[in-house]
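Regression test attached.
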Amino acid sequence: MIGEKLSSDKLEGQLLPKSLALPIFASDPLSSVAYAPQELLMILLLGGLAFLSFAPWVAAAVVLLLLVVVASYRQLIKAYPSGGGDYEVASKNLGEKAGLIVGSALLVDYVMTVAVSVASGVDNIISAVPELAGLRIELAVFFVVLLAAVNLRGVAESSKAFAIPTYLFITSVFVMIVIGLVRTSLGDPPVAESAAFEVKGEQLSQAAFILLLLRAFSSGCSALTGVEAISNGVPAFRRPKIQNAQRTLVLMGGIAIVLFAGLTTLALIANVHYAENACNLVGFDDCQNQPQRSLIAQIASSVFGAGSIPFFILQAATAAVLLLAANTAFNGFPLLGSVLARDGYAPKALNTRGDRLIFSNGVLILGACAVVILVVYRASVTNLIQLYIIGVFVSFTLGQTGMVRHWLRELKKPKAQTGRIWRSLSINALGASFTAIVLIVVTITKFTHGAWLVFLIMPILFTLMLGVNRYYRDVEKEVEVDPHTTFGSRGDHAVVLIGKMQKPALKALDYAIAARHDSLEAVHISIDDEATDKLERAWREMNIRVPLCVLRSPYREIGYPLVKYIKKHQEANGGEVVTVYLPIYIVGHWWESLLHNHKAWRIRQKLLMQHGVTVALVPWLLDSSDVVYGRRSRPIPGQERRGEPVRPMPRKPLKPANDEAVASAGARANAARPKDPDVERAKTSKVKAKSHR
Amino acid sequence: MIGEKLSSDKLEGQLLPKSLALPIFASDPLSSVAYAPQELLMILLLGGLAFLSFAPWVAAAVVLLLLVVVASYRQLIKAYPSGGGDYEVASKNLGEKAGLIVGSALLVDYVMTVAVSVASGVDNIISAVPELAGLRIELAVFFVVLLAAVNLRGVAESSKAFAIPTYLFITSVFVMIVIGLVRTSLGDPPVAESAAFEVKGEQLSQAAFILLLLRAFSSGCSALTGVEAISNGVPAFRRPKIQNAQRTLVLMGGIAIVLFAGLTTLALIANVHYAENACNLVGFDDCQNQPQRSLIAQIASSVFGAGSIPFFILQAATAAVLLLAANTAFNGFPLLGSVLARDGYAPKALNTRGDRLIFSNGVLILGACAVVILVVYRASVTNLIQLYIIGVFVSFTLGQTGMVRHWLRELKKPKAQTGRIWRSLSINALGASFTAIVLIVVTITKFTHGAWLVFLIMPILFTLMLGVNRYYRDVEKEVEVDPHTTFGSRGDHAVVLIGKMQKPALKALDYAIAARHDSLEAVHISIDDEATDKLERAWREMNIRVPLCVLRSPYREIGYPLVKYIKKHQEANGGEVVTVYLPIYIVGHWWESLLHNHKAWRIRQKLLMQHGVTVALVPWLLDSSDVVYGRRSRPIPGQERRGEPVRPMPRKPLKPANDEAVASAGARANAARPKDPDVERAKTSKVKAKSHR
């Protein structure tokens, strides 16, 4: 067994207890109550104040939906505890295409989660500090950049610091609801600052009336976003994983319902009037310059008093939990990428654990998309929410439909516990039909308000993923071992490419000698006569007995003459396998690679295009290269959701002192026995460097 | 000799005749007459209409300066015909730092050449089609992107199509000047559309009066930009190179003087009133919305008639020659980069001829900088010209001072032709003092108008280049062969990394067998038990006699267990050199590399960090890889100025059918004699693939 093994106990200890899992996975769904009631009421207000009387019914529908979805996901967790979530369920039960639709929906949704959460977070900051209103977009972009930077640097999601905002948010909103309701029951209901504003309602036909109710419901459904998060994180739970995940899900659902219902009730009690266009509020005079404060901020100031300390605590908690929700997308995005990669729908590199570079790209892509979206939609929650939840409900619907298929299949198995299965089946069928209806409603009500963009991007992602898969399939076929393949190359000629008389070149020569090839020669491509003369002189002076072949390159190219020379050799020697030794630099800083190796890389690529050529890279570690280490122990986005503990990688001892290490190996070199008299000349020659100046 | 040799005659035939060299190198200096007279007169007008009476004197000063600079560069071409220009002269004669100052000045100047030329080109397009006035910035950005795209694609500067706009521009401006002067002598002088406009002049103190004259002169000096282009292009001329280049330079100087003087005279005759702020023109009522037409457009419409065909021809030629001038910067930038790289002040990769990728980066950087500058300065010639010519005159002054040093040194040589040298010396001394004075004037008059930015950026570039040089020097020292280095590694163990039972892995194994190492084993890192079982079964079925060692990797990593295994082997065997065979894919399209090889690359990097490890890359050429060829024959920016003919690269025949090639080599494999009984086991085993399903 290789690798520092963590015992099972130890592994278990690094997994998430429920008390940490709740805030980590629930920050996304819980934070959505910060904007869902506001958007729900806002749409109703389009029809005028009278429409607010429908609010309890619409909110009740959202709560019912939330109940159904939570119940459905309880089933999903039980059946698919591997963390694949809707994507896995859909692709396993409904086939590849359904899985890919879910995949593309989720990719879009991660971007939207970042955008909406950050926009809402900024909105709540502005609600507390209205002076910042002019910097809305700048703040939003700043927070996305900050989140991206934090995730590029590496951050352990399980850190307890991450739990604080969520618990603070839950507690403070809960306290606010209780105080508000108690005050109301005592005959002193809170009154929002916008309570006095009249609203210019539109005259609505009956069809428009129904459509408006449906639109309000659609916007309220944004409260459901993120419910699926726990189903993706089951592997990160402590044992018994399934039960713990299910309990956390139910707990989260309960809290979400309480907060959502409580906030909506309080908003209605306090008469919060939040309009899509602030200037539709009659009485809000400075609507052009003053920001409209968020619903949660208006409730908080009416309950706690404007500018009071609890008000600021609540706003801070709200903003923090929203940013945390955005952070979860930075964790989920690469995780989904790795799942897609594992199944061959995304570049395989995305499935390379521990490759910070890859995850950096994912973080950068997600951040860049979110920034673009935020700038284009001017960081307005109301605008952004139109693009949201399409993806969520696509994945809900397909996931639940997949679950129905799953249970139907289970039923057919021998010894199936039909009673239980029927129960699960009906729950998921209910979930599937509810979410399907909502998806239709959402599509109808939001398509022309901006959601068309999602319907444009999803097929593009879908096609790309399918294309990647087909590409891999073709390659797989191309490299498949078939009955007619016969290998059996022969020959063992080696060429060492010598540029200048420098240590890296001599090391390459040394290694080539150590490998005792049948024949060995050093090749120098001359692009500068003076340098070539100097090299030849040094070669003689140092008494190196490997022959040095000089090739002139009139066009100052290196790869082409070398390839031509090798080809000639192969033609003369019946297609021998030729090993070309290339010395290359290993550097420490990214910018150093801008200054090195490009030529070597080009030569390598040229050589690799030839048949019968192997390129042997002989590294020369520059002093700076030991800086490379020490960067590995930072966690990678999505690592914890996958159930992988964040462990410090064992640091390898690396001594930068190449010379000593090689030299000590050299001390034993004399023991090497000559093997073949034919190649004696090359084999026994020993490179000993003398001062050659 | 390797490489298809072009005979000297043939090479000569591909060099530039004077008739082509003139338009190619002169588009930059000649095009500057399209804005120089305008900017000169505009600054004078700041003082009011009366100041125009100083215009002939200021213009005469510019012409005198042009004469002196042309004469100076005739000397420079003679002394330094290698195409290094001012940079070479300054660094050879005044030392490294002076050379770097010139280098950074020129880098800045290339960006400004693109920006100013494109801005002026767009200005002239708008002057012909005023409806486009609202799209000024968009058009400018479009043209920069277009030029970058054309240069990324590769374009032969020597194409005759490039000569047409320059000749058309020269001819049509010349015809316009002649017609205008003839009409004036016949008593029918042209009258510009702005002739009737009064100008609100400022009240000036005497100091301000002189400063204004100096500012006008500074702006007029923009006519001198690009004069140095020919000195950078001497290698591209036909023999006798020096004489041809000198004659072309003189011819260009003559044409520039005629055009500049002619346009200024006509502008004064036609009373063109061009103001820095259009709304300072009394009588130009719609100054907010209507664009002020360029000086050349106003002259053209007064001479040929507004909206006449010759007017449009002239405007088109002007715009075309200006865009051509911008294109020359796209050629000069990478050329300068390669010269700096050759001397170790820029990444060495920039000196890799034929590497399209590198030049692409140069083109992209230049284009991006120009776009940023154009957007920030709103594509206004008047704003941009403030940043221009600082760099030009820095490089003029240092170049000419370097020439003075050069001649002084020449004088000291025995058998020096003192007469001739003294003549050259005095010409260059005159040039140096003139350009130094102008540099001081330009700095004083432009610093607060935006030129400070140039004085900020130049030191940054200077420091970067010096830093790169010091880095290379340190590395050079680190890899220098010193008396204490002793090499002499021993051992010859080989490891073939096997992922799946696929052709690339078998090919790597086959090559490793062919190389007949002392000992050979296949290593598989198991991250998936099922896949490992499948591999082990296939291994047995195919009767491969190389032992397969399976390493379990609990953390799904590949590099680390492999490195650990190799280290253990080295510890047990006294630090043997271990060759690790890695199969890698060679692909055809850039996007394919997103889908492959990342894992292999990571493993390779990890292995290369180890002492005593060589990585042997065994390529597997995917079918798509033969697409790579056929892209090489396109010219690279700066190729022709360097005097390198654009030649089609010999196409290498590449058969994608790997199997046959390897298989045919395999047919001869049986002849391979066993070498060492100890390693018989591995050496004689033959990989023969059978259907293993």
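Expected vs. actual: identical. Residues 542 and 688 of chain A are 7 Å apart (CA to CA).
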